[in-house]
TrEMBL record:
Organism: Hemiselmis tepida
Gene Ontology molecular functions: formyltetrahydrofolate deformylase activity
Pfam families attached to this UniProt entry: Formyl_trans_N
InterPro entries named in the record: Formyl_transf_N (IPR002376), Formyl_transf_N_sf (IPR036477), PurU (IPR004810)
Keyword Hydrolase: yes
Protein name (record): Formyl transferase N-terminal domain-containing protein
Top-level taxon in the UniProt lineage: Eukaryota
Alphabetically ordered keywords of this record: Hydrolase, One-carbon metabolism
GO biological process: 'de novo' IMP biosynthetic process; one-carbon metabolic process
Record carries keyword Cell wall biogenesis/degradation: no
């Protein structure tokens, strides 16, 4: 998405990157975008989601794209971001839900794997 936006192939303005993985910061530093590290665990999820809402509001983001987020948003977060949040899941849904979809596909003998982008909902 960042590359396509930079090339003018997507009519969007990327206003920042939020990640729960600090090790990715260097990978994205060359984009010159604001970087927000929001660590999340089961215990800190409410605070992490509150921080995410604050960042979305402060940056006036119209859309949130979850890529490699690897967490399930709470029902409240889904409600607050309704029709404004897309998840990119690294497998074809509903075939390989959850963690390690490549391993799931390999175990079932699947020869092709892809990705699914979908609006985030509480369902």
């Amino acid at each position: 998405l960042l590359y396509a936006a930079r090339r003018g192939e997507l009519p969007i303005d990327v206003v920042g990157i939020v990640s729960n993985n600090e090790t990715l910061k260097d990978d994205f530093s060359h984009w010159g975008l604001p970087w927000f590290h929001v660590p999340v665990t089961k215990e800190t999820k409410p605070d992490a989601e509150a921080r995410l809402f604050s960042i979305v509001e402060d940056t006036q983001a119209d859309l949130v794209v979850l890529a490699r987020y690897m967490q399930v948003l709470s029902d409240e977060a889904c409600r607050r971001l309704e029709k404004r949040c897309i998840n990119i899941h690294h497998s074809f849904l509903p075939g390989f839900k959850g963690a390690r979809p490549y391993h799931q596909a390999h175990a079932r003998g699947v020869k092709m794997i892809g990705a699914t982008a979908h609006y985030v909902t509480a369902n």
